[in-house]
Amino acid sequence: MTRVLVTGASGFVGSHLCPALIDAGHDVVAMTRHPDDYEGVGQPVYGDVAEPDSLRAALAAVDAAYYLVHSLADDDFERKDAEAARAFSAAAAEAGLERIVYLGGLGSSDEELSPHLRSRREVEHLLAADGVPVTVLRAAIVIGHGGISWEITRQLVGHLPAMVGPRWVTTKTQPIALDDVIRYLVGVLEPVEARGQTFDVGGPEVLTYAEMMQRVARQHHRRPLPILIVPLLTPRLSSHWLALVTDVDTATARNLVDSMSTEVTVSENSIRDIVPGEPLGYDEAIRRARAAREAEHERA
Model confidence at 132, in pLDDT bands (50, 70, 90)? Predict the structure, then answer.
């Protein structure tokens, strides 16, 4: 059994990771800025990556940590994420952690990355700066109820009878089901072979954003979604349009749109040597996301 800290425990990925780790027999410490209000599983502990002193107590007596925090909704997210990663790296080294597991973003280092993806890559290096081995999983869009990228897709399809699309809707990406992300995150915690390694993770299909929306439309409406591509629709206009049509705020939309112009696909599959099993297809991933949303509404 490993005693593990999960940062961002109440977030989209963290809230699903904590119970999966417990099911796998691990002892979970859930780091949150609001431990008194925490309703998830695991032992809640106060911690804020913007307050380095709070990390010492949060990391006390744990063997490993999952780093799942980011400042995507902030216009100054690159600086804040870098400062947070430096603080966490130093605190993890001081606490004597055996390993950090980080969920980053896909994207080839040979091409110019968007600010969002560039920041994710910088965080990878900063987390390892003080000597704690970092296992990195790089993913594109994670398909699951509550995920920002999935919510954008779902809401666009649900709200629009037809769509005027910017150029980024033709960009290729490799979406992955939330269930597979959780399976991989849990699976790399203990194997020695995963220590300090970087893995690409993705589903079995490479799709454009337009193709993903069409597949969602077939499940949601049982009919195609007409999409007219307008190349002159700038990223800034596109982000304002997303914020208007969906409930994603403008800053987050702008940072995501910048990344949507970059092709992000899996370049190697060595994760399957560590965590065997076929990932879910896109249609099954969106079916599960929709089912989770419906189940939540029934409970409310």
Answer: very high
CA distances (Å), origin 163, targets 51, 156, 215: 43, 8, 14
Coil, helix or strand for 116? helix
Q: Are 190 and 159 in contact (CB under 8 A)?
A: no
pTM comes to: 0.93
Q: Yes or no: say if 221 and 157 are a contact pair by the CB < 8 Å rule.
A: yes
Quickly state the pLDDT bin for 259 (edges 50, 70, 90).
Answer: confident
DSSP-derived pairing of the beta strands 99-105 and 176-177: unpaired
What integer best gives the mean pLDDT of the chain? 89
What is the chain's length? 300
Q: What is the DSSP letter of 42?
A: S
Q: Which of 66, 10, 20 is nearest to 179 (CA)?
A: 20
pLDDT recorded at residue 242: 74
Whether 170 and 208 have beta carbons less than 8 Å apart is answered as: yes
Radius of gyration of the chain (CA): 19
Name the DSSP class of 180: H
Q: Which domains does the chain have, with CATH numbers?
A: 3-140+177-201+265-275 (3.40.50.720)
pLDDT at 153: 85
Helical segments of the chain, H only: 14-23, 52-58, 77-95, 115-127, 148-159, 178-187, 209-220, 235-245, 250-260, 271-274, 282-299
